[in-house]
Amino acid sequence: MILIWVTLTSSLKPLLALFTQALLSATFLTEDGATTADGLNSTEMYEMQNSTPAFFPEPTSTPTINQTEKAMTKLEKSHILGTFAYQSSVNFDNYLKELGVSYVLRTFAGMATPVVTISKKCPDADKINEKMNPQNCTWTITTDTLFKSHEVSFRLNQPSTDITMDGRLVSFVVNQTGPNTLVEQQTSGDKHTLLVRQFSANEMKVALNVNEVRSTSIFYRLKKEND
User: Fold this and answer.
1) Containing H/E element for 223?
2) Which of 4, 48, 166, 170 would give a disulfide with 188, using CB separation of 3.0 to 4.6 Å?
3) By C-alpha distance, which of 186, 23, 191, 179 is closest to 98?
4) Residue 148 sits in a domain of what CATH number?
């Protein structure tokens, strides 16, 4: 029995070798131009193995500094700078009264139609990087009326002092909380005032708050300056 099994095994070895060779030839790459079991020749298989998969797109070019700055400028477009003329107000006399302004001055203030101009000047070295160094720029707010003119200059987030048009000595600080919002906090004695100026392409809205008294004023745009 053992002799018969050895004889059969020896006779089957050539057949097994032929079967294995045929299987390997059908599965792996053959010589150039030969066809594999999946219908691709060796050249096509090589190109497929060495090409970049479709789900790994070719890298795009890196945006230049100018392109990035233009995109940022478009996103952060501001309407703050310009000239605005008085249009209307609500509860302004009570606001001045709460501040302690005299009747005579309140009367003149009620008759006035102020024109407000907001400008900004930055050092030449910081003009390009102005958005990165806004505190290096000096802002100026000029108010003109038939009776009196007033001008105040400041830098963002830095405490300053001013004598208002009604004669009050105040300490104040201005923050820019958004591309089109300036928030000013004033202190005069025991009076704490909050002024919020909001800007759009056509107007400036001013909300004033002292203690529990609130007032609003609207100015329409006369002229827009370059930001």
Assistant:
1) strand 213-224
2) 170
3) 191
4) 2.40.128.20
pLDDT above 70 coverage of the chain, percent: 60
Q: CA nearest 214: which of 94, 61, 57, 35? A: 94
Q: Which domain holds residue 132?
A: 79-224
User: What pTM, to 2 d.p., does this model score?
Assistant: 0.63
CA atoms within 13 A on the CB side of 112: 22
The C-alpha atoms of residue 14 and residue 18 are separated, in whole angstroms, by: 6
Instruction: Extract the tokens encoding 34.
Output: 């030969």
Q: Which segments of the chain have a pLDDT < 70?
A: 1-76, 125-134, 224-227
Burial of 182 (0-12, 13-18, 19+ CB in 10 A): buried
Among the listed residues 87, 63, 93, 60, the one whose alpha carbon sits nearest the alpha carbon of residue 166:
93
DSSP 41: B
Tell me, yes or no, whether 121 and 184 share the same domain: yes
147 phi and psi, to 5 degrees?
A: -95, -35
